[in-house]
Every structure is written in C-alpha cells, then in structure tokens.
C-alpha cells in the first residue's frame, strides 16, 4: 500500500470524527425492529394504586348539601345528646376530630369554622380502634413477641459427606495413601430459656463413619451421645427482674447490645396505647358535645334573627304605609331607615341559616353520618341552667389522679425506671455458671444383636452402648467476661438516667399545666354562669324596652330610630344569652374533660372487646397447663410490682360497670319536674334505652351505659343540693345547686315568654319550635 493512499485514509477518518463531534451513538443490535412502544419511559409517572376499597354507604349515597339556594329536606330529626354520642361511638373506627374549631370567643357569632380536614392532611396522627391491638400484636415490641423469646427452640440437622482425597503418608498396614470416607451426621436438640436467664438444653448427636483407614477395628461405626447442659448467669444478665425488663441477653454472642425489649416494657407500651386510645375516645365525645351545643345555638341564633327581621318588617310596612299616605309623622328618611333595618336583619338571617347548615354538617361528620341524607338534625335536649359547683381541693386531686395524659406520662416514667434497672445490671461482670453432662455410646451397628461387650466396637449396637451408661462425661465451669473501663455500659446508665430525669420533669410540668387548665376551667365556668344570669336579665330588659319604646312611638313621643335600635338590641341580647348559656354547658363538660371524668359524665366506659374463639381455647389450655405444673417460687428474684392495678373508670355508686355484650341499662322513671327544681340530664323520653359499644381490634371497646350524662348525684336531705357519691381515694364531690336564673322579679314573664311559640314563618323555614326552659 502506497504512502499517499495511507495519508488519504487517515484524512478521511479525521474528517469523519470532526463531523460527528462528541455526540453519543446508539449501539447496533441484530434483530432490532426499532419498535419501542412496550418500553415505559416515565419512571415517576403518576398512577392509581390497584386497591379494592369498599366505599361507605354514607359517602356513596350523600345528597346535595343544604345551602341558601337548596333548602329542601324531607324531614326533621329530633336528636338527643345521648343519641349523638351513641351514634358517634358506633361509627367510630377512626377517632374523628374537629380540630378545635369550636373554641368560642364569647361573641354572638357561632364558631362553626371550616370543614374538618385533619384526617386528610395527617391521617397517621389520628387514633383508631385498631391501635391497641396493633401495639399488642407487634412482631417487634409486642407482648407476645417478648414472651416468644422464652419459648423452647427445637433444632435439627442431617448432613452427609463423601470424602475422597490423597494423604501424605507412607503406604503400610496402618495408613493408606488414599482416604475415602462416607460421613453422616444427625443432630437434634431443644433449648429453653427460663425467666431468670437460665438456659437449659438437651441435644443428641449420631454419627455414621465409614472410611478405609486400616487402623480401625471395623470399616464403619456409629457414635451417638446424649447431652444435657445448663447455663446460669450469676451477675450480668441474671435474675427474673432483668430478663422480664430487658428480655433474653447473651453477652457471649458477638454483637450483643443493651436493647431492652422485655415483656414488662412491652406491656407498658400496651398500657400507653390504651391511654392514648382512651384519650381519643374522650376527645371524640368532647367534640360531639361541642358540636351538639353549637347546633343548638345555631337554631337559637337563627330564631332571634328571624324575630328581629319580622319586627323590622312590621315596622317598615307601617312606616311605608304612613309615607305613602302622606302623613306628617312619616317621611322618606324614616322609610329608608326602617327599610335598611329590615335588610340588615334579613342578611343576618341568611348568614345564621348558612351557619346552621354548617353546624349541622359538623355534627354529622363527628357522628360518622352522610353529609346530607334528606334529614335535618335538630337538638332535642335543652341546656341546663342549674348552677354546678365543684370543690377545688377534691377536683384538683381527682384531676391529677384521673387525667389520661398524666397516666400516660407516668407509664413513660415507669418505663424509664425499668430500663435504668436493666442498664445498671450491665455494669456487673458477665459471670456464667456452666454445667454439662454427656453420655456416649459407640458400636458397629446402630441397634445391637446381643453382644454385651461394650468395651469394643465390633458387634456392638451404639444405642445399646448408650443405654448401658459405661461412658459418661461431665463438665463444670465458669465463664467470665469484663470490659476494662465499661465505658459503653456507663454511658448507657447515664443515658437512661437523663431520659428518666427528662420524663419526670415532663410529668411535673404536665401536672402544673393541668392544674392551670383546671383553674381556667373553673374560672370560665363561674364566669359563664354569671354572664348567663346577666344576659338573661339583659334579654328581659331588652324585651321590655321594645314594648315601651313601641308604645311611646305609637303615641308619637319618641322617634323611629329609638324603636329600631331597641329591636336591634333585643335580637343581640337574645343571641348573647343563648351564646353564654351554650358556653356555660360547654364549660361544665370542659371541667369534666380536665379532671378526667368526661366519659363517666356522658355514661361511656372502656372495656376489652371479645377475643377470637381460638384465643379462648388457647387461654383455657394454658390455664390447665399451669394448674397441672409445679409452682416455682423465685424467692428474692421475684420482680417488683410496677402497676397499681386497673383504673376505676366510674367512681360513683349506683353506676356498675357493664360487661361487653350486656343488655341496656334501664333507667328509673323520670321524676316529675316542678318549677324551680333542677332536671337531671339523664331524664327524658329516651333515657336509659340505648347501648353503644366501640371495640378496638382484639383489645378494647367503648360502651355507652345508656344512662346518658350520668353525674352520680343523689338528692340531699334538705332538698336544695345534689351531691356526688364518693367511694375511693381522691374522688370528686360535685355539688349541683338549685337553679338560680335571675335576680329580678320577672320569673312569670320569663316562663310565659318561653312558652310562646315561634311565628309561622320561623317554623316554615327551620321547623324549629321554641321549647320551654
């Protein structure tokens, strides 16, 4: 090849590289058809999961919401507070919450807020009925998982080897240059760890060996042995208390750590989850009560606004008729002023009606019902006007004892105390006592043929030799391990001490915060009661003012603006009265909320749900096993008591706990209510006729006793006071005094005003008829 041709080819290569640059090129493949439609090029494409979900009927069948443009509904649903709580518990697999949207500012506007969205934005933070069962059955940290660490472990193996290799030896009668062997090894054993850390094991090994060594008495033989061993930690890792707190711990296993996950800590985790479950139920009941009374206020607010609207309409018509007739006492300014008053009230009526629909929807949500089902809920219960007084010392003590949050934090303190005990155990040296006994047998056969000369192999059965007991081996010893400096163990103890100090500090400040919260609740309760009395007097005075000013206006002695102002003041006074009355009833519930008796106040208690049939079968079996076994007294190694027993949920007499599945509790016939006498909240047409239960998955349930807001009160001998029964330490005494409504002599007018029905226009729009106080 000539030099010129080589230069020409090199120039072509350089030119081709210059034209292509640094751009990547695809590889060449045989059988490439250039079809790539089957390849998905988007790695983060948004897709729907393949989940078979059963939508609730309340979601699937929800109707169009009630609005100012759509006010049609089929019927009214008169609902009591007890029924609202019962429906909420029956439908509460998830503890729905309104997110504090009912915090009243004391103003005339009902605090209905926006639609609840806490579950959509933070679903993992919502309590469910499944949480206690999930914690109980967790494979890491659950009670059964912790107990499983002490279960017996059965092990076994069967191994076959064929060996064939040369040996570096001289060929003679004793040794062979080629080693051939068939080796079968069978091993079986069982190991059990006791509560004190004792490990007991039983093992048996059988080996079949067939090789070509000339020095052997027989070409093949069987070797079998039975071994029993015990390992007892004497210092670190020993004792019932440590093993029940920390679980089994073997310091001689590589990578052994101080991870504490014993049955005591697992049970404490379950107790913490139960406290959180109880708090979730309590919060649900609190939200139900708040939503119920807010709906009650929405109806009352709408009624007062309608009353003002009708009064303004009547005044406008009268002034307009006078203006059109050309009378001197009516002019364009008065007509426009009265017309503005009417439309102002009309806007307030429309706003109040929209707020009523919102409040009704909030109650439906917390009850787990459809947003709209053709019925409009109307509260049937009237708020109490009786003065409720609490003894501060007993209230304070009871709150510190019964608060769910305080109890949960105390369990966390106890958890840290248990972990500190286990951490201090690790400061001790690892000293284990070992004992092992082994019986050995060997023979040409596995089963013998009558040869009793067990000192030789030929003609002897290995199992016969083992049973004869001529060959016994023993082993006794101590194993000691100690880290020089024990820095890791000291750091663990110091860490647990700091964790315990932190939890105790939290507990102290939680008690301080609870004390302040109860103080605020009592202060608010007293304030709301006094304000309710004052607002009632204002309401009566505003009604009288309207009548007096109207009479004076008809007589021509006052101007129109005074009459319009009086009508406005009457509407505002009536709304303010019902606002303060609702806040007072919510204040009573808030006191019970703070002192930990809200569930009792509403007749609800927690109980363990029914187990599966297999669980009852296993429990009976274990009970019989324990009855047939020999009792072992652990003596000084018995663990300390870490629980004070179950919580007494109902602390009053006459309110027995009802077992899950029991029938409804029948209430006594309602006592006739006379003027000036307080009506207990649990009396009414539906008292004592409902039973609601809410079960946590395999662990807990909530049941309404049907007595509805039972306060455990009994009439005092003097007929003026009701006292709560006290039966245990630090129980509250709630004194419910006779109602003291007003300080002015207007009782008769108050009763007649309450008995007066609402105008027909009011009933047509809302279906609400004013009830007697």
Structure description:
It is built from 18 helices and 15 strands. The strands form four sheets. It has a six-stranded antiparallel beta sheet with strand order 2-3-4-5-8-9. A four-stranded antiparallel beta sheet has the order 7-15-14-13. Mean pLDDT is about 75; it is low at about 100-110, about 250-255, about 655-700 and about 705-773. Strand 3 (about 180-195) and strand 4 form a beta hairpin. It is elongated and about 150 Å long. Helix 8 runs antiparallel to helix 9 (about 330-365), helix 10 (about 390-400) crosses helix 13 and helix 11 (about 405-425) packs antiparallel against helix 13. About 35% of the residues are buried. With about 775 residues, the chain is α+β, with helices and mostly antiparallel strands. Helices cover about 45% and strands about 15% of the residues. The protein starts with a helix and ends in a 7-residue tail after the last helix.
